[in-house]
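task queued by scheduler; priority normal; single chain, no ligands, no partner chains; default sampling; output format set to structure tokens
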Amino acid sequence: RLRLGSLVEDGLSYKESFVVRCYEVGINKTATVETIANLLQEVGCNHALSVGFSTDGFATTPTMRKLHLIWVTSRMHIEIYKYPAWGDVVEIETWCPREGRIGTRRDWIIKDLATGEVIGRATSKWVMMNQDTRKLQRVSDEVREEYLVFCPRTPRLAFPEED
């Protein structure tokens, strides 16, 4: 499968660039919120595939597949400071900060590739669910060990905390 992004920071984050296409913009010729959300999802899935997680569309670890567990987005926060226009190239970086036993997070930074300017940030919270029973599950130590090797050791947030 062709993916144009790559792992960076020793495989702890993933970057991919995209050209904003004509059918991804609204009447004002800038990307729609739907386009931005789709790009974030694409980069997140490509990151999971790049580190060897399942290709079934759910980014599952071997233990998760064995136990019929999947990740489900429970919350998402997107801030766009400047919407990219038709023809602009954006670079999106994503990573999964270390989290607790109830779920995990995925963060993104969106940059204008031409200027390097940060034009958006996003964060999401994910919970684990049994795909057969549809009940939420705690993240077991075994599953945590499988995905924590791909999380940055030093805390890194898309939205830096203010003093």
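post-processing summary
- Strands lie at 6-8, 13-19, 69-80, 89-95, 103-112, 118-130, 136-137.
- The CA atoms of residues 80 and 120 lie 4 Å apart.
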